[in-house]
Amino acid sequence: MTLKPFLIRYARQFGTLFGLVLLCIALWIATPYFLTSSNLLNIMEQSAINALIAVGMTFIIISGGIDLSVGSLVAFTGVVLAGFLHDGWPWPLAVACGLVAGLGCGIVNGLLVTLGRLPPFIATLGTMSVARGAALLYTDGRPSSGFDSGFRSLATGQVLHIPAPAVIMLVVYVLGHFVLTRTKFGRYTYAIGGNEEAALLSGVRVRLYKTLIYGAGGLLSALAAVLLTARLNSAQPIAGINYELDAIAATVIGGTSLLGGQGTMGGTLVGALIMGVLRNGLNLLGVSSFVQQVVIGAVIILAVLVDVLFKPKKK
Amino acid sequence: MPSLVSALRLRGIRKTFPGVLALDGVDFDLLSGEVHILLGENGAGKSTLMKIISGASRRDAGTMEIAGVPVDLTGPRHAQELGIGIIYQELNLVPHLSVAENILLGREPMLCPGVLDRRRLRRIAQELLDELGLTIAAGAVVSSLGVAEQQMVEVAKALSLDARVLIMDEPTSALTSQEIERLFATIRRLKARGVGIIYISHRMEELFAIGDRVTVLRDGRYIGTKAIGECTLDSLIAMMTGRDLDAQFPKEAARPGEVALRVEGLGRNGVLHDISFSVRRGEIVGLAGLMGSGRTELARALFGADAIDCGRIEVHGRERRIRSPREAIDLGLGFLTEDRKTQGLVLALSVQSNLCLPSLDKYARGGVMMETRERAAAGRMVDELHIKTPGLQQRADCLSGGNQQKVVLGKWLCTAADILIFDEPTRGIDVGAKVEIYRLMNRLAAQGAAILMISSELPEILGMSDRILVMHEGRIAREFSAGATQEQLLAAALGRSV
Ligand SMILES: Nc1ncnc2c1ncn2[C@@H]1O[C@H](COP(=O)(O)OP(=O)(O)OP(=O)(O)O)[C@@H](O)[C@H]1O
Ligand SMILES: [Mg+2]
User: Looking at the structure, do residues B316 and B416 belong to the same domain, yes or no?
Assistant: First the structure.
């Protein structure tokens, strides 16, 4: 591929990347510590959980849906996982079961949307509350802590001096990008979000694929729950509050259209990193968390505003 | 007769899109009270020129004068204020609002600021509709209307702006002949009032019926302007394409084989009743009927897109239950839908992705796309159908209307379907390309495909079919052999016995 069409096609992604670089330069000038390797790795690690959830969210939003339940699923799969661990299951098996639980919850979301014909917003609003309640019931509202070191190494371990969560995040993004751009599943995701009727009439099994897409969303929430539980060495039924909003924000900052049919994995990664960098930088600068909320909200609006203003006018 | 007052004057208009020179120094003059036909092949630049006139798109170079005054349009609103109304190729109504609300959208009468005067809204709209001789109720919800009626609502909307220039981009592509007559009557009335009308259509017979002058574009260049009286069909086609066209309907004799599709007693509550027919291999069966007679509903039911209540469907001699389009495709059916924008294309996806969407399994192994194979297949279709696009990765919504239609057709050639249902296959396609599509249908039939062709253009039905079915109110009213006349078909479609 020659450079020019490539640049035009991915202009939006490079725009966001440019924003990320600018942000980093600004923070570097404000506080030199920002650009140390330990801090950068730190940011990757802290962004990993949101970034993982955002992978699933990207698929769901491109397909024309939305998933509000991901934060609650993080809590629910986290306490389920903790249950298995405390029952003395070997940790890899427990993790696998936690992931399957997440996948199952996601598929339930998908079935509500496809077979139940509920609008995704409503279906996942419901499961958001159900999953949260189930997590609280299951634990009696108490966190459960103290896991073996093998499990905790998922969060504390390092590969080539890079924190394990960052490695997992990068691997998942490479995979996600591959699935979205190089597989039938990815192509159908775009087709369903772009024009569901046309996809259906072209023989796409819309219900099946939509269900799988929500399933993937649940699976990735569960993966995020694994990392969170390992990092905190504790599973909490009130974990993951507002995670859905962070994931949606990362996706949208990354250029995915809430109307469906358009978006990229690379964009979402940059979006998640922008949010991570911003939080980290504001913390370094000692900005209060109240102000941080205001700033992050403003950045979301700004990102989409730039998008709207620079998009070539519709005919 | 048209006056000699210039309504619109364009000189040296130029417009480029990435990779495409859409307009290259085009001149155009419109007089008050004339119907000026704009003619050109698919992708010649007609719609692009109209978008520039209506302020929806900016020209890169050239000048524009409205009634002798040079203007630089800032947007569609500005054009409206200067008396330019446009009816786009694709309908642009808000489906859930009423007819009246659509007609006066953005200019609603108010009781006081912020509060709608609904009664006056309804009354103004109804007056406009009545003036056009339409029987549409102003209170009706747009989505409950047929395509033709929606088209008329667009006309009423454009007129409510008191337009001095009215652009119609393929207004008749979804209309039946009576509806076209009604539209023409309206156009004549507007002419008499001194409105200048720019009219785009690929139905050549219309040009002679309604046009005063004609301007021809080819590949974005201005070819010439002539009075309609000086032109013949052949001379216009030669101007458009730069070459001569031999036959409008190159029908070849069919050699029907065994029955590919047999339908018996098919019914769908309230829409289809007791439908029985069959299509043989190598045969082109035309399906005629009025808008709303159930032709598209029948196609959707056969294709598994809508459920059926009773009846049998046999595919290649075996009874089948088709519950989804996927199952239909796996049985070798293909369905070219009538509305490319809402059913045919995923507009945000590339030409390549659209072409390969129904046949993706062929280009994937273990769920992973084999990019080279997919690209090769799509490239073949672009060549075979002469789809005009700067590249396979071009988004489908950047193609001209006729080229979009070719992409929809190409989808089903990629699947190698051998029972093809074509719903208005040549809608919006230029004369030259129509003949190419007819040839393609001949070739498919000769290779043993069974083709069911739905069309509202009776000449096309008569010219290309081996047998003709006519539907009326959800039933197959009559069957004709190839030698039927237009009058016979029309009578059957209207439910009269002949
Ligand atoms: N938004 C766009 N982006 C890129 N290319 C475009 C865009 N709109 C139109 N084009 C290109 O400009 C050329 C002229 O298109 P236009 O729609 O004006 O053709 P047309 O004469 O109306 O054809 P048709 O009879 O098929 O409707 C085509 O090659 C088309 O692909
Ligand atoms: Mg056009």
Answer: yes
The reply to whether B234 and B382 lie within a common domain is: no
Calpha distance B271→A84 (Å, rounded): 56
Contact A200 B361 (CB under 8 A): no
A38-307: CATH number: 1.10.3470
Q: Could you tell me if residue B247 is inside a domain?
A: no
Contact B83, B66 (CB under 8 A): yes
Residue ranges in B10-146 assigned as alpha helix (H): 46-53, 76-81, 99-103, 118-131
Confidence of residue B237 (pLDDT cuts 50, 70, 90): confident
Mutate to test the interface with B, among A202, A210, A213 (most CBs of B within 10 A): A202
Are B229 and B166 contained in the same domain? Answer: yes
Rounded mean pLDDT, B63-84: 90
Q: Are residues B127 and B92 in the same domain?
A: yes
**What is the DSSP code (8-state) at residue B161?**
T
Last residue of a domain, one of B215, B241, B267: B241
Q: Give the pLDDT of residue B87.
A: 85
CA distance A162 to A170: 11
Answer whether A164's CB lies under 8 Å from A48's CB: no
B170-198 pLDDT, tens per residue? 887 777 777 788 788 888 988 888 899 99
Where do the domains of chain A lie?
Answer: 38-307
Which residues have CB under 8 Å from A268's CB, separation 6+? A51, A54, A55, A57, A58, A250, A251, A254, A256
Average pLDDT, chain B: 88
* B327, containing H or E segment: helix B325-330
Domain membership flag for residue B246: no
CA atoms within 13 A on the CB side of B377: 26
Round to whole Å and give the CA distance between A249 and A176: 18
Same domain for B170 and B54, yes or no, is: yes
Contact: A185, B371; criterion CB under 8 Å? no
Statement: residue B302 has pLDDT above 80: yes
Whether B233 is in a domain gets the answer yes
Calpha distance A11→B202 (Å, rounded): 37
Residues B17 and B79 in one domain: yes
One-letter amino acid for residue B279 of the chain: V
Asked if B365 and B468 sit in the same domain, the reply is yes
In this complex, the residue of A8, A183, A195 whose CB is nearest that of residue B346 is: A195
Mark whether B70 and B102 lie in a shared domain.
yes
Average pLDDT over residues B439-453: 91
Nearest chain B residue to A201, by CA = B325
Grouping H, G, I as helix, E, B as strand and the rest as coil, residue B133 is: coil
Ligand 1 atom at minimum distance from B48 CA: 18
pLDDT at A9: 60
Q: Atom 17, ligand 1: which residue's CA is nearest?
A: B400
Instruction: Name the packing angle between helices B147-160 and B177-192 (round to 10°).
Output: 10
CA pair distance A171, A190, nearest whole angstrom:
22
Tokens in use for B459? 């000449």
Q: Residue B425: give the domain boundaries.
A: 259-493
In a domain, B372, yes or no: yes
Angle at B461 between CA B455 and CA B464, to 5 degrees: 125
CATH at residue B33: 3.40.50.300
Last residue of a domain, one of B180, B210, B241: B241
Residue nearest to atom 7 of ligand 1 (CA): B398
